[in-house]
Each structure stands twice: as C-alpha cells, then as structure tokens.
Amino acid sequence: MTTTLDSHDCELAALAVDRVPLELAWSSVIVTAPKRPRPILSSISGCARSGELLAVMGPSGAGKSTFLDAICQRTPRASGELTVNGTTAYSSKDLLSFVEQDDALLGTLTVRETVDFAAQLALGPTYPNLSQHVDATLASLGLSSVAHQRIGTALQRGISGGQKRRVTIACSVVAKPRILVLDEPTSGLDAKSGKEVVAFLQRLAHEQNVLVICTIHQPAYETFALFDRLLLLARGKVMFDGPTSHLDHYLVAVGSPTPEHVNPADQIIDLVSTDFFKAHVGSTGGSSGPREKGSSPAQTPGAHAHGTHEMSDIAPADQHVDGLASSWADYAARHDLVRSPEPPTAGNEVPYAKQRKRGAALMGVRKTLTLSHRNALNYSRNLLAYGIRLGMYIGMAVLLATIWVHLGWHASKLNDRLSVSFFSVAFLGFMSVAGIPAFLEERAVFIRERANGLYTPGQYLVAATAVSLPFLFACTAFYTLIIYWAIPMNPGATHFFRFLLYLYLAILAAETQSLLIAAFVPIFVAALAMASFANGLWMTTMGYFIRSTSLPRFWYYTFHFINYQTFSFDLLVRNDFAGQVLPCGVDAAGSCLCPIESSLLATTGECAISGQDVTQDLDIAGVSDGLYVGILVIIIVVMRLLMWGMLVWKKR
Ligand SMILES: Nc1ncnc2c1ncn2[C@@H]1O[C@H](COP(=O)(O)OP(=O)(O)OP(=O)(O)O)[C@@H](O)[C@H]1O
C-alpha cells in the first residue's frame, strides 16, 4: 500500500485548491442524557483549523463519539455554540463530511462503483475529471487493486472488513469536504493499514487544507506521531487539548513521564482511565506522581488515594479526572496553549452555501437519476433480495396454476374460485415482507449519505419508487401470465389487463406498507413481526374468511374500509365473475341446488347463479371499480407520504 499511496501524493497536491482557511470552534458544549447523573460532555470549548489533523482520544465511554456528533450538529441533546470562521451561520452539510463507525455500503456494487456514485452524488455527474478523481481517491486509500471487486453480500464474499472501512472513508473523501470528521477510521485495520490511512488523512489535511478530526483507539507510536493535535477526553472533560509535540512534556509535568519504549498515547490513556479505578486504587494506592508545580489545588492523580472509604464509588474517579482537567488548564495557560477562536474578518467568510443553491433544482434531478441508476444496478444484481423474491412470486403462481388447474365455472366451485382472488391479494401481499432486508440495507446507506447532505429523503424515495415500480410490475405480470389461463380466469383481454392492474395495485400497497413499517422500526425482526401482523389484520377483515356483511360492526366500519386488501379483493372478484354464469347442481329429486341465492332461477328458471349474484352475495355489486382503484391509489400515495415523513423524521 505504501507505494500506491506515495505515487498519488502528486495527484493529491494537484487536487488541492486555494481555499479559504476554516476554523471550527466549539464553545461550552454540554451534552446530557436522560437518567444520567452527569453530562456526557461537560462544557467543552476549543477549536481546530483547516490544514490540521486532530486526534480525539480517551478511554472507552469518555464521550469521543458524542463529541463528534456534537460538533457535527448530529445530536439534539447538545447545547453550546459552534462557529465556523466566527459565524454560526454556516451549513455543516455544505462543509463537512462524517465517516461513521459502521460501514453502510451496498454489497452488490463494486468498490469503484460505490465511490463513483458517492462522487456523482456529492459533486454532480458532470464534475470535471470525475473519473480521474475517483481513481485518485481509490489509489490514495490503497483500494486500486480491489476497485472492481464487489463489496460483498451474504451470498457472495467480497472485500475484507478493513477494505470496507477504507471504502467508507473514500466515499466521504471523494466529496472534497472542507472538514472531514471520522469516528474510528482505523478500527478493523491492521497496524500497517491503520498507519497508512492516518498518513493519507494527514496529507489530505496538509496538502488540501482540509480540517480532519478523528477519534482513534490505541494508535501505534508512528501513527500517533502523524497527528498535529490531540484532544483527550475522560468522563466528558478535557484532559489535554494541544499539539501532540507537547504531550511528552506535559506528562513529565504531571509526574507521569512516559517510560522508555512506551507510547505516550498509551501513557496518557493509562493516566486518565478510570474504568477499573476502584480496583486500581485498592490494589496500588492509586496512580502516583506529583502535581505540576504551581498547578491548581484540585486533586491530582494520587491525591485521593487515601480515605477512599469515605467516598462513593464514583467520587474517586471524578476527583481524579477533575484534578487532571485542572492540571491541564493550568499547564495550557502557563505554556500559552489556550487557543481562542479568531474573530471573523473580511475575506474569510464561510463559502459554499450560496453557490450550491444555484442550480439546485437541476442538481436535484441529476441526483435522483444517479440514485435511480444505483438502485437499478442493485436490483439487477441482488439475487438474494430481488431474484429470490421474483422466484417466490413465480413459485406461488406455479402452485396456484397447478393446484387450481382447470377449475372451471361451476357453482360448486364458487369458494374455490373466490380463493384465487383471496390468495392472489393476501399471499402476494404477505410476501412483500421479503423486501424489508434489502430496504434496511439501502436505508443504512441513505442515513449516512443524507446526514452528509448528499441528497434529500424526497429524492431518495422518488428514486427508490421509480426502480421498484417496474420490478413489482414484472413480478405481477409473471404471476398473472402463469395463472390466468391455467385456472382459467375470466377470459378476454379487458379482464386480463384489469386483473393485472388490480393485483399490481395490491402488491404496490403491500410493498409500501412493509417499507413504511421498516422505516418506522428499522429493526429487521421487529419490522417483520409488525408487517406480518398488519397483513394478518387485513386478511381477517377483508371480507373473505368472514363475509363483510357478517363482520362485527367495529371491524366492518374501521379496518374493513381502510384495508387495501378489501378493495383489491373486491375488484378481482368483480372482474372474475363479470358476465359469468355458473351452473348449479341438482339433487336426486331434481331440485336445483345453488350455494347462494340465484336470480336466474327466480327470473328465467335457469338452475345457475350469475356473476351478479356472487357480487350481490358479497355485498359488492353496487361498488364502482373506478372509485375502488382511486382508493387504492390514495392508500398507496398516503403510505408513501407517511414513509417520506418517517425518513425525514428518523435521522438514525
Ligand atoms: N443517548 C444516550 N443516552 C444515555 N447515555 C449515552 C447516550 N449516548 C451516549 N451515552 C453514554 O455516554 C458515554 C459516552 O459515550 P460515547 O459513545 O461518546 O463514548 P466513546 O468515548 O465514543 O466510547 P467508545 O470509545 O467506547 O466508543 C457512554 O457512557 C455512553 O453510554
């Protein structure tokens, strides 16, 4: 990887542009959580400037991820002030890209496609030299050799976990952010790859004047040396916030010098860790080391070691951390390391926001097209999600066509025939839950990209709908073609196309319902259970198992009439029986035996029931097909709008 990285130094330098220097400042940032005795972050202030690589470190639970969330405006629980170049009037989505701890990627795409789509969404498909920029980014992160490998799915092994981490970073870097924030960019990477990634981030900061802030756990000495500054947190407080070059001196000053062959990054983490504090205090008498001469009277590491029996379990750790926070504040003041944000000046106004507004509508259309293209690729390759689903629809059709084969038109087969319409609506609708896993995978990508301002929930939904419509139509068409003449259903082109339309609307409604539920509860098992329950509810109140006229009034006036299955089932039944006459049987005495009341017997004496008799019996004779189609469309549109609302509302 070293060689590829080096060979792209020039490329990176060439990509550098003369950019307005940025300073991100955070002031008195406090993050609290309900039922938590102390804040997650206790009034943190500081700033960082473009061209710097800042490490945010601290023991587990120190508040590092929360700090990143706060400075990226990703948590509603934060208070305090954030400014860029002295102003609060900036858009973090325009300036900043966030790389989360989890790698949310589409497994069916190749590495290059993934980064290329990210570039198109961030910069626009017509951005000059986009392809070269994508290749340079891949090379910079050591991904050229796997550029054409798929990310990987449950069926197809793809790239390694460490490579996925780098692809996620590449997706953010390729967007050319002015501020890049990364949560654990080296987790899952071996030491060498971790160092290469941090070296890349350092060059990105130094050569492209980007401000890079990242949390990092236990960096190797050489990796740690690449950082310009360190912000060290413990129990939500600042333990160190200055150039990494001062760390050794500071450790000496607080009486905890780094022993030979020990990484100063490990030494300071050891010093501020309190997770096993009580045990540590009990066994060793607390961490030792004199306080820096002249430091505040707050407790130093060893000061609380005696008399712990008088304190609560939490107090010694808090005291330890408070002592170190004071030590740092004293040290920083003494050594002129306290950084204050620069006041705003003419010429360093925050750029971008206005420029981006221009041509926003065209950019929005392009993004929707790019997203649709990506979705179409995903659909065409995702055998598990879509291939197997199409196979299921075909399998169901074959089952129906072979079991109900040559059903014919006899009154004794009335219920068998009604069950074709029921089965088609209810079971095909039920199978829409199979779309939930693929949606959740896409949603994770959407959450990441939306948080980085790449596109809006509306654009995502339009693109997702545009690609799912033909897929669901194909599923419906295959199903209809297989069963229609095998049973057969009501002959004639009009009835055939009506069947296709009504069933398509039912499947669309079922699909939208499943996705709406998954957007509301984005946990696979829970969404599956809820969608299954909803389908069960619709099945039982649609008027097949118990005729609608016999349904208890509560269910009839509520769920029967907001039920997409009611309208689809009624439409299919009306279509199937329209104009048909079903002869009834005759008993030994020659009496006509019809399963339902026959109007033909009463008027013409013919021993048969008409299609009209069937719809009359089901209490759907007088309904308007157009109205029912309209209601189905409204149900689908309302659920899609609710889904949009859910996507807007749920940011995680
Ligand atoms: N929404 C929340 N509600 C309650 N507690 C929370 C919430 N978010 C975070 N915390 C708590 O705040 C503390 C800091 O969490 P955070 O994830 O920021 O730590 P971290 O330093 O990133 O830890 P790690 O290195 O283990 O990822 C933890 O104790 C965590 O349990």
From TrEMBL:
<dbReference type="Pfam" id="PF00005">
    <property type="entry name" value="ABC_tran"/>
</dbReference>
<feature type="transmembrane region" description="Helical">
    <location>
        <begin position="383"/>
        <end position="407"/>
    </location>
</feature>
<protein>
    <submittedName>
        <fullName>P-loop containing nucleoside triphosphate hydrolase protein</fullName>
    </submittedName>
</protein>
<dbReference type="InterPro" id="IPR043926">
    <property type="entry name" value="ABCG_dom"/>
</dbReference>
<keyword id="KW-0812">Transmembrane</keyword>
<keyword id="KW-1133">Transmembrane helix</keyword>
<feature type="transmembrane region" description="Helical">
    <location>
        <begin position="517"/>
        <end position="546"/>
    </location>
</feature>
<keyword id="KW-0378">Hydrolase</keyword>
<dbReference type="InterPro" id="IPR052215">
    <property type="entry name" value="Plant_ABCG"/>
</dbReference>
<dbReference type="InterPro" id="IPR003593">
    <property type="entry name" value="AAA+_ATPase"/>
</dbReference>
<dbReference type="Pfam" id="PF01061">
    <property type="entry name" value="ABC2_membrane"/>
</dbReference>
<keyword id="KW-0067">ATP-binding</keyword>
<feature type="region of interest" description="Disordered">
    <location>
        <begin position="282"/>
        <end position="309"/>
    </location>
</feature>
<dbReference type="InterPro" id="IPR013525">
    <property type="entry name" value="ABC2_TM"/>
</dbReference>
<dbReference type="Pfam" id="PF19055">
    <property type="entry name" value="ABC2_membrane_7"/>
</dbReference>
<dbReference type="GO" id="GO:0016020">
    <property type="term" value="C:membrane"/>
</dbReference>
<dbReference type="InterPro" id="IPR003439">
    <property type="entry name" value="ABC_transporter-like_ATP-bd"/>
</dbReference>
<dbReference type="GO" id="GO:0016887">
    <property type="term" value="F:ATP hydrolysis activity"/>
</dbReference>
<dbReference type="GO" id="GO:0140359">
    <property type="term" value="F:ABC-type transporter activity"/>
</dbReference>
<dbReference type="GO" id="GO:0005524">
    <property type="term" value="F:ATP binding"/>
</dbReference>
<keyword id="KW-0472">Membrane</keyword>
<feature type="transmembrane region" description="Helical">
    <location>
        <begin position="460"/>
        <end position="487"/>
    </location>
</feature>
<feature type="transmembrane region" description="Helical">
    <location>
        <begin position="419"/>
        <end position="440"/>
    </location>
</feature>
<feature type="transmembrane region" description="Helical">
    <location>
        <begin position="493"/>
        <end position="510"/>
    </location>
</feature>
<feature type="domain" description="ABC transporter">
    <location>
        <begin position="24"/>
        <end position="260"/>
    </location>
</feature>
<comment type="similarity">
    <text>Belongs to the ABC transporter superfamily. ABCG family. Eye pigment precursor importer (TC 3.A.1.204) subfamily.</text>
</comment>
<keyword id="KW-0547">Nucleotide-binding</keyword>
<dbReference type="InterPro" id="IPR017871">
    <property type="entry name" value="ABC_transporter-like_CS"/>
</dbReference>
<keyword id="KW-0813">Transport</keyword>
<dbReference type="InterPro" id="IPR027417">
    <property type="entry name" value="P-loop_NTPase"/>
</dbReference>
<feature type="transmembrane region" description="Helical">
    <location>
        <begin position="627"/>
        <end position="649"/>
    </location>
</feature>
